[in-house]
Write a structure and sequence with these properties.
mainly alpha, 3 helices, rod-shaped
Protein backbone atom coordinates (compact mmCIF):
# COMPACT_ATOMS: atom_id res chain seq x y z
CA UNK A 1 0.00 0.00 0.00
CA UNK A 2 1.25 3.45 -0.87
CA UNK A 3 1.51 5.81 1.96
CA UNK A 4 -0.14 9.16 1.79
CA UNK A 5 3.09 11.05 2.04
CA UNK A 6 4.52 9.25 -1.02
CA UNK A 7 1.31 10.01 -2.87
CA UNK A 8 1.65 13.76 -2.19
CA UNK A 9 5.31 13.76 -3.18
CA UNK A 10 4.24 13.19 -6.75
CA UNK A 11 2.74 16.64 -6.88
CA UNK A 12 5.71 18.47 -5.34
CA UNK A 13 7.38 20.95 -7.71
CA UNK A 14 10.71 19.80 -9.06
CA UNK A 15 12.18 23.17 -10.01
CA UNK A 16 12.37 26.55 -8.46
CA UNK A 17 9.13 28.46 -8.18
CA UNK A 18 8.46 31.01 -10.82
CA UNK A 19 7.99 31.04 -14.52
CA UNK A 20 8.86 27.82 -16.21
CA UNK A 21 12.13 27.88 -18.13
CA UNK A 22 12.67 25.97 -21.23
CA UNK A 23 16.01 24.27 -21.53
CA UNK A 24 17.88 21.30 -22.61
CA UNK A 25 18.62 18.63 -20.09
CA UNK A 26 22.20 18.89 -18.81
CA UNK A 27 24.78 16.56 -20.33
CA UNK A 28 26.85 15.78 -17.26
CA UNK A 29 29.42 13.69 -19.15
CA UNK A 30 30.07 16.55 -21.58
CA UNK A 31 30.39 19.01 -18.70
CA UNK A 32 32.94 16.77 -16.96
CA UNK A 33 34.87 16.24 -20.20
CA UNK A 34 34.96 20.01 -20.82
CA UNK A 35 36.01 20.61 -17.24
CA UNK A 36 38.88 18.09 -17.49
CA UNK A 37 39.98 18.98 -21.01
CA UNK A 38 42.29 21.85 -20.00
CA UNK A 39 44.05 19.96 -17.14
CA UNK A 40 44.44 16.88 -19.35
CA UNK A 41 45.95 19.00 -22.12
CA UNK A 42 48.37 20.39 -19.51
CA UNK A 43 49.15 16.83 -18.41
CA UNK A 44 49.95 15.80 -21.98
CA UNK A 45 52.25 18.81 -22.28
CA UNK A 46 53.93 17.89 -18.97
CA UNK A 47 54.39 14.31 -20.17
CA UNK A 48 55.98 15.56 -23.38
CA UNK A 49 58.31 17.82 -21.38
CA UNK A 50 59.19 14.92 -19.06
CA UNK A 51 60.00 12.70 -22.05
CA UNK A 52 62.22 15.45 -23.49
CA UNK A 53 63.98 15.87 -20.13
CA UNK A 54 64.50 12.09 -19.86
CA UNK A 55 65.95 11.97 -23.38
CA UNK A 56 68.24 14.90 -22.60
CA UNK A 57 69.32 13.27 -19.33
CA UNK A 58 70.03 9.98 -21.10
CA UNK A 59 72.16 11.81 -23.69
CA UNK A 60 74.01 13.66 -20.92
CA UNK A 61 74.57 10.41 -19.01
CA UNK A 62 75.98 8.76 -22.13
CA UNK A 63 78.29 11.76 -22.69
CA UNK A 64 79.47 11.54 -19.07
CA UNK A 65 80.05 7.77 -19.42
CA UNK A 66 82.10 8.28 -22.57
CA UNK A 67 84.13 11.06 -20.94
CA UNK A 68 84.74 8.86 -17.89
CA UNK A 69 85.88 6.01 -20.15
CA UNK A 70 88.31 8.38 -21.92
CA UNK A 71 89.61 9.63 -18.56
CA UNK A 72 90.05 6.07 -17.31
CA UNK A 73 91.95 5.16 -20.48
CA UNK A 74 94.22 8.21 -20.02
CA UNK A 75 94.84 7.35 -16.38
CA UNK A 76 95.62 3.75 -17.29
CA UNK A 77 97.99 4.87 -20.03
CA UNK A 78 99.80 7.21 -17.60
CA UNK A 79 99.99 4.44 -15.01
CA UNK A 80 101.52 2.05 -17.53
CA UNK A 81 104.01 4.73 -18.56
CA UNK A 82 104.98 5.47 -14.94
CA UNK A 83 105.12 1.83 -13.83
CA UNK A 84 108.78 1.15 -14.81
CA UNK A 85 109.97 4.30 -13.03
CA UNK A 86 107.92 3.50 -9.92
CA UNK A 87 109.21 -0.09 -9.94
CA UNK A 88 112.80 1.16 -10.24
CA UNK A 89 112.28 3.62 -7.38
CA UNK A 90 110.75 0.89 -5.22
CA UNK A 91 113.59 -1.49 -6.06
CA UNK A 92 116.15 1.21 -5.24
CA UNK A 93 114.45 1.95 -1.93
CA UNK A 94 114.32 -1.76 -1.11
CA UNK A 95 117.99 -2.09 -2.16
CA UNK A 96 118.99 0.79 0.10
CA UNK A 97 117.05 -0.74 2.98
CA UNK A 98 118.64 -4.15 2.33
CA UNK A 99 122.10 -2.57 2.13
CA UNK A 100 121.54 -0.74 5.40
CA UNK A 101 120.32 -3.94 7.06
CA UNK A 102 123.29 -5.88 5.65
CA UNK A 103 125.66 -3.21 7.03
CA UNK A 104 123.98 -3.49 10.44
CA UNK A 105 124.28 -7.28 10.36
CA UNK A 106 127.93 -7.07 9.28
CA UNK A 107 128.67 -4.62 12.12
CA UNK A 108 126.91 -6.91 14.61
CA UNK A 109 128.85 -9.91 13.26
CA UNK A 110 132.13 -8.01 13.51
CA UNK A 111 131.34 -7.10 17.14
CA UNK A 112 130.49 -10.73 17.89
CA UNK A 113 133.76 -11.85 16.26
CA UNK A 114 135.69 -9.29 18.31
CA UNK A 115 134.06 -10.60 21.49
CA UNK A 116 134.95 -14.18 20.54
CA UNK A 117 138.56 -13.18 19.68
CA UNK A 118 138.85 -11.32 22.97
CA UNK A 119 137.49 -14.27 24.91
CA UNK A 120 139.79 -16.66 23.06
CA UNK A 121 142.74 -14.39 23.74
CA UNK A 122 141.82 -14.35 27.44
CA UNK A 123 141.37 -18.12 27.65
CA UNK A 124 144.33 -19.10 25.45
CA UNK A 125 147.05 -19.06 28.15
CA UNK A 126 145.03 -21.25 30.51
CA UNK A 127 144.15 -23.68 27.72
CA UNK A 128 147.77 -23.79 26.52
CA UNK A 129 148.97 -24.52 30.06
CA UNK A 130 146.41 -27.27 30.42
CA UNK A 131 147.37 -28.78 27.05
CA UNK A 132 151.06 -28.70 28.01
CA UNK A 133 150.34 -30.32 31.36
CA UNK A 134 148.37 -33.06 29.70
CA UNK A 135 151.12 -33.63 27.17
CA UNK A 136 153.82 -33.86 29.81
CA UNK A 137 151.98 -36.02 32.30
CA UNK A 138 152.93 -39.73 32.14
CA UNK A 139 150.32 -42.17 31.00
CA UNK A 140 149.29 -44.70 33.62
CA UNK A 141 147.47 -46.80 31.10
CA UNK A 142 149.36 -47.07 27.83
CA UNK A 143 146.19 -47.94 25.90
CA UNK A 144 144.37 -44.91 27.11
CA UNK A 145 144.99 -41.56 25.54
CA UNK A 146 145.58 -38.49 27.60
CA UNK A 147 142.83 -36.51 25.93
CA UNK A 148 140.30 -39.12 27.03
CA UNK A 149 141.42 -38.60 30.62
CA UNK A 150 141.16 -34.85 30.27
CA UNK A 151 137.66 -35.19 28.75
CA UNK A 152 136.47 -37.45 31.56
CA UNK A 153 137.81 -35.07 34.23
CA UNK A 154 135.46 -32.30 33.19
Amino acid sequence: MVRFRDFLARFRPVGTPGAPTAGVPADRAAELAAELEQPLDGLEQAQAEAAAIRAEAAAEAERIRQEAARNAARILELAHARAPRVRAEAAAAAGHAASARAAELAADAEQAADRIRSRAHERMPALADRAAALALEPADDPGRHRWQQAGSAE
